[in-house]
Amino acid sequence: MGFLDKIIAKNIQRDFYTLHLLLFWVFLDKILRYITIKSLFMFEQFCKTLCSNEPYITVEVNPPHGSSINSVLKSIESVGLQDKITGFSVTDNPLAKLKMSGILSAIKLQQKFGKPVIATMSMRDKNKLSLQSSLLGANDFDLRCILALTGDPAKFSDQPEVKGVLERDSTLLLSIIYHLNNGVDYSNKVLNPKPKPIYPFAVTNSYARNMKSLQKRVIKKLDYGARAIITQPVYDLENAKELLEIFDEAKAMSIRDTAKDAQLILGQFPIVRSRTANFIDDRVPGISVPKNIIDEMNLAAMDGEDKEQEVGFALSKRLFDEVMNLHPKVHLMTHNRFNLCSDLIGE
Fold first, then answer.
1. 229 torsion bin: left (phi>0), alpha (psi -120 to 50), beta (else)
2. pTM to 2 decimals?
3. CA gap 148, 202 in Å, rounded
4. Under DSSP, is residue 157 helix (H, G, I), strand (E, B) or coil?
5. Which residues form a coiled coil (predicted)?
């Protein structure tokens, strides 16, 4: 091969390499655009389902006391739960007990199943600087549904000498999200680039001796921009009806325009042990378990654990179906017993 032929061959080889590199970047750009569009559609569909008459079911996931959530993901996948629900939620060190990061767990869960995840953020562990930093980072990973909690007291922690931050209650986090959705941080400095829309969720007790006081707290959270409110577990259909009535009144009384489309999501925590029923009713504020359920569970426990679980599941399944018929917006909490979730939902 002559000198000129070698130069031509090298140029062809270089151009061929350049063309392949260009095609690779074009392909990568299309993939990234597709992922972004898919993510936007995913959250749009999630909110559309929440605001429609279609069934909406989310399941709470607790990160492990360890450095990997893979075993939890396998447990979900083993029962095909991801195909039966609308989305997930992930807790944030509940009861101030050490768990893997809720934000990072939520990102991995969302990427694994392609389902929207509501990430819990607690005021107990973060100040407004850390909250904003976490929200902006999560936003870049398309984690955009945030459940704002005040958080359980630090004195319950399993870690020595833990102190809570608690600059304010969960309304501070709702206020921060309101600012970010307007393209500014909490000090009103413009963010560049502006975050993608964040959907704020909040919580409420399911029962109070004075239900009007409960309603006032709901109105306050709607005023701070909450788009949906998840209740503590409901164990009585009349209680569910009362909550829906109170919520509709609260929406009308809120000063915020977003309250018009806000939704109430009824919490469900299936009881399959009598001691759980008694503990919740006696020791957990803001939740009421009807006496007839406690009596049935206590009687079933007298005939052994199998009978107790059989009766408990039957009661839980009946209540779940009744609530879904009344208001098909449910949040299931089962302490990672995903087979129980799957059985309750059915085929």
1. beta
2. 0.88
3. 5
4. coil
5. none
